[in-house]
Amino acid sequence: KDMEHYFFNENVKELEIDKFIYDNPIILEVVFGLINRKSQVKLVDQTGRFEQDLKPDLIAYNLHTKMWTIVDYKRSNSNLLKKVGKVRESYKSDIPDLIAQLRDYVEFFNDSLNIKYYKDTYGDTIEYPTAIGIIGILPEDYTMGFNRLKRDFPNWVEVRPYNYIYDSFCRFIEVSNSIS
Asked: Hey, is 66 helix, strand or coil?
């Protein structure tokens, strides 16, 4: 019930989602294989490239890929597609904006000074991280269009709607309960 509230309630703020997911680490471990989580870390740029400090929602180690992954949550009320099933079907601006934000986080680790800063501050060496953006609810009849369009994503990023995560986690619980 709590998961439904945080994932499907349009009034829930991003920091509330972040806290719920942080307090329930099994969700990201089951769905994405993410462990050794660090929430709301401050990335202080050592190079002068970025105009401000960066603050991803989560950085965690991915057991499936053996790489560090940067995660950012957006609210569930984000609209994902426009002109669904029509000519020029495309993403609404929320998805390109999310990917741009994740790109900055990933590119922070392109520089050895930033890699050293992170290791000295947080204890882990992160090189070539991937990224996951969690955003919106995707109606079932939008699935084909979303799958078609996500082929355009860069290979370092994955965008996953909240209902996909919810469905995956519910399936995990169902399978777990069937084990005798």
From this structure: coil
Q: Kindly list the distances between the CA atom of residue 3 and the CA atoms of 66, 69, 87, in Å, as whole numbers in the listed order.
A: 27, 22, 36
Rounded to 5°, the CA angle 12-132-20 comes to 35
Sheet holding 130-134, edge to edge: 34-39, 58-62, 67-73, 130-134, 157-160
- Kind plus residue range of the DSSP H or E element containing 22: helix 14-23
The owner of tokens 């609209």 is 79
Q: Which of 139, 9, 121 has its CA nearest to residue 75?
A: 9
* Predicted structure pTM score: 0.90
73-98 residue pLDDT tens: 987 766 676 666 666 766 667 888 99
Per residue in 33-80, pLDDT (tens digit) is 999 999 999 999 999 998 889 999 999 999 999 999 999 998 776 667
